[in-house]
Design goal:
With about 375 residues, the chain is α+β, with helices and mostly antiparallel strands. The protein has 14 helices and 10 strands.
Length: about 375
């Protein structure tokens, strides 16, 4: 069992990795050894990212398993098993084990026989990756082979402390991938600045966002140079907290700017990466409207249903009657050709999110950055 100081050092290492601005898979590979040292487990962690707007899987990464079997993904949405991602996401502390979920009888779970035993595993722990502002960005699964002790209270306490750090690293990794090779209309942009705040490089997706702030690569907005300066100061003081700022565009919308210090791999020159993103990008809602001709209200109800909200929760969030929610759901089912919430989730995942998972797997094989959100229609 790891001691308190050792756990603290491990958390610091995770925080260092999360603040470096690496692409997603580099981040996963960086944090995996630290997780293994503090919470011993079989082989390698199983990492997922999800779309915060729908909680549907957008990527999977496990060293040695280049493609997750389709039936494993389908099981999450067509016939949820014990200790499913959805169950862990809905749990109070965002952590679950198969042993606890089955009352000590993991053999009750389909995944135990089809996904675990054939690969030498007996135990499963799933941790939800939720940021400190309560956004869900993914999950990590850890496994143990027969004869190993159950995941302990100390193991779980460490992982709960690590969860928001891992979530931030995953979020940044996806933002980086989307900025470098955008394929969605609300993609973030990236600008790299030198120590004297001159532009070293930028992505094409940064141009409209800079223009929205009244600037350009040749004439940077004051908000961007300010957050970049704060990001560089983090390098000088070895601070692990990225600089972040919210600023209004000329059109009155909000952008969030994230600045993370970088080190040049050749000369060690200080640089800073600034990512610009819309404050609340809505990806699943426009997709639902365009793909299934849903009305704005049907779109809102469908998005909440995909994220696992009950009828009463949908009604409260939208300030409408529960009966009205049911009416909207029936129309949504008719338009999408399904008969239940579970079928709706399966349909949307299979049509718009599993393609993203497969695309990210291929990108990982090609050493390209993973991206989030549904695949564009």
């Amino acid at each position: 069992m790891a001691s308190g100081p050792r756990n603290t050092r491990a958390i610091d290492r995770l925080a260092d990795a999360a603040q470096r601005g690496d692409d997603l898979v580099t981040f996963w590979r960086t944090v995996a050894p630290t997780l293994g040292r503090v919470v011993p487990h079989f082989e390698t962690p199983c990492f997922f990212t999800v779309d915060p707007g729908s909680l549907l899987i957008t990527s999977h990464f496990q060293e040695g398993l280049p493609e997750i079997p389709a039936e494993w993904l389908a099981r999450e949405y067509t016939a949820p098993d014990y200790n499913s991602l959805a169950a862990v996401f809905a749990s109070p502390d965002g952590l679950g084990t198969l042993y606890d979920a089955t009352g000590g009888r993991p053999e009750l779970a389909t995944k135990y026989h089809e996904e675990m035993v054939p690969y030498g595993c007996e135990q499963e722990l799933v941790l939800a990756l939720r940021t400190r502002d309560e956004e869900l960005w993914g999950a990590v699964g850890l496994y143990r082979e027969p004869g190993q002790p159950l995941f302990s209270h100390a193991d779980k306490a460490f992982l709960r402390a690590a969860a928001p750090i891992l979530a931030e690293g995953a979020r940044r990794g996806l933002l980086y991938g989307e900025a470098v090779e955008p394929d969605l209309p609300d993609a973030p942009g990236a600008v790299v600045l030198t120590a004297d705040l001159r532009v070293a490089s930028y992505t094409d997706s940064a141009l409209p966002l800079l223009a929205a702030l009244g600037g350009s690569p040749a004439d940077l907005p004051a908000a961007l140079t300010a957050v970049a300066g704060a990001g560089l100061a983090a390098t000088e003081h070895e601070d692990r907290t990225e600089a972040q700022a919210r600023t209004r565009t000329l059109g009155g919308e909000w952008l969030v700017l994230h600045a993370s210090p970088l080190m040049d791999g050749n000369g060690g020159d200080r640089r800073v990466l600034v990512i610009l993103e819309q404050a609340q990008p809505s990806r699943v809602a426009p997709l639902l409207m365009s793909a299934y001709q849903l009305t704005p209200r049907e779109r809102d109800v469908a998005a909440l249903a995909l994220a696992g909200h009950s009828t009463s929760e949908c009604a409260a969030r939208l300030s409408i009657a529960e009966y009205t929610v049911q009416q909207h759901l029936q129309r949504i089912f008719d338009k999408t050709g399904v008969r239940s919430r579970r079928e709706l989730t399966s349909r949307v995942f299979g049509s718009h999110y599993e393609p993203r998972v497969r695309d990210n797997e291929a990108r990982t094989e090609d050493e390209r950055s993973a991206r989030g959100g549904p695949m564009p229609a």
